Amino acid sequence: MTASSSRARRTDALSNRARILAVAGDAFAASSNTSMTTIAKQAGVGVGTLYRHFPTREALIVELYHHEIQKVIDLAHTLAAELPPLDALRRWFEEVAHYGKLKYGFSEVIHAATNGGLDDKNYEPFVRAIAVLLDAGAASGDLKRDLDAEDVLLQLSVLWRIPPGEDAATRATRLLNLILDGLRARPAPPPGSPG
């Protein structure tokens, strides 16, 4: 095997893995009962390829969890740099709510894989991501000072307890509004009133 064909195989394997994770994220967010065969078919790979990358359903779920939460963590820094603090926080909370749909069906698998969260390598980076957004909001005067990022994480954990259904997105929005209102340095003006 030549070096170029070896590189091509690695590139194909990485591409397959990324495609499987993307498809699995969407499929599991829609239904936690999606089969591995369905995921392979939607990703355009054989079942053998899927199992070569993820030998068990649990392995796929845990890898997807790490992959998705890292995207959410990275997004906090991007939003903090690009948007006004309240807009950044709201946009990030919305992404956390989307992630919550994925976590809803798999909380038991993730808890088992991370020793009930005690061995979760994502915990500290996630808390630091929250702190970045809270610090920006406190510096602008939009958010209360001395907010605890871990307290906010506990509030956000309600998002992955929302059962899927027609009103799930509406309920998530209502909960996010409650959380945001509690974090503001001053209450939000009533709808329709001058800002």
Strand content: under 5%
Mean of residue pLDDT? 84
Radius of gyration: 19 Å
Count of DSSP strands: 0
Q: Report how far apart the termini are.
A: 67 Å
The CATH topology of the largest domain is Tetracycline Repressor, domain 2
**Broad shape:** elongated
Order of helices and strands: HHHHHHHHH
Number of helices: 9
Main sheet attributes: strand count, strand direction, barrel closure: none
The level of helicity is over 70%
The CATH class of the largest domain, by name, is Mainly Alpha
User: Which CATH-level-2 architecture of the largest domain?
Assistant: Orthogonal Bundle
Class of secondary structure makeup: mainly alpha
Q: What is the total number of structural domains?
A: 2
- Could you list the spans in which at least 5 consecutive residues all have pLDDT below 50? none
CATH superfamily of the largest domain: Tetracycline Repressor, domain 2
What does this structure look like?
With 195 residues, this protein is mainly alpha-helical. It has 2 domains: 1-55, Arc Repressor Mutant, subunit A, CATH 1.10.10.60; 56-195, Tetracycline Repressor, domain 2. It contains 9 helices and no strands. The chain is elongated.
